[in-house]
Specification:
The complex is a heterodimer of chains A (about 170) and B (about 100). By secondary structure, chain A is mainly alpha-helical. Chain A folds into 2 domains: about 1-85, NADH-ubiquinone/plastoquinone oxidoreductase chain 6, subunit NuoJ (Four Helix Bundle (Hemerythrin (Met), subunit A)); about 125-174, no CATH class. Chain A is built from 8 helices and no strands. Chain A has helices at about 1-20, 25-45, 50-75, 80, 90-110, 115, 130-140, 150-170. In chain A, helix 1 runs antiparallel to helix 2 (about 25-45) and helix 2 packs antiparallel against helix 3 (about 50-75). Chain A is globular, with a radius of gyration of 21 Å. The N and C termini of chain A lie far apart (about 55 Å). Chain B has a single domain (about 5-90), classed as Helix Hairpins, CATH 1.10.287. Chain B has 3 helices and no strands. Chain B is elongated. The termini of chain B are far apart. The chains are: A mainly alpha (about 170), B mainly alpha (about 100). At the A-B interface, helix 1, helix 2, helix 3, helix 5 and helix 7 of A face helix 1, helix 2 and helix 3 of B.
Chain lengths: ~170, ~100
Amino acid sequence: METFLFYFFGVGLLTTAGTAVVLKNPMHSIISMIVSFFFISGLYLLLSAQFLAVIQIMVYAGAILVLFLFVIMLFDLQKSEYQKDKFTKFDIVSVLLVGFGASKLIALVITSNSVANYNKAKTIPENFGTVKTFAFSLFGSPGVLGKHTFVFEAISILLLAAIISAVVLAKKRL
Amino acid sequence: MVSLNLFIALGIILFFIGLLGVLIRRNIVIIMISVEIMLNAVNILLVAFNRYKFIENNDGLTYSFFIIAVAAAEASVGLAILIAVYRKRKTVFVNKLNTMSN
């Protein structure tokens, strides 16, 4: 069952990500990207990372990709406009190079014994990937700083700077 | 239980799909989408290694949580720059955006 789910999510993810890259219409490719994020969320559930699965749907599919969608609507690209995105000779070279590199790496990984050492089934700790563990490592318990509290604060400052700079950059008159 | 090798292979393929998108497309929005695909591939690898090798702690999950937050900041600033560029040059294709002045 788990193997079937892995192949279902994995094949769906690779197809939707591939169409997101290949499709000419940016609107179609963004919608295909949203579908691929749902598949990624399913993979997280397979890896028993429940909180990340929810965050993936809420933050990525719900916020970031919808932002992309609205920006695309703002551009109002006509069909004659986005069809101009033609492939050139250089693209064939890059496809060949990327395919060569990927196939080499995958052939290395699939047969690797040092990776396969970790495949033994382990008992999952009860608090793996839950909201509670995230909260303890991000905020700490009362009186004690968590393991990642400083990084969390830095991220909040970064997000604040991103909000301000996005507003300033997108204003009509700089 | 699915083997870790399969998860790593999936992450590698996904990363290279994103890299291919950055290399062969001219539309800036699609290029940014491809960058998001690459970030997600790395997230999958972090979570998979955390689940299979370091199950006693939660660090890989926390790092991918931070990566999601940084990706949100990056997308918002990048799209704001894109809107400013589009307003001035009326194009979203990188092969047309090849001068620094107008």
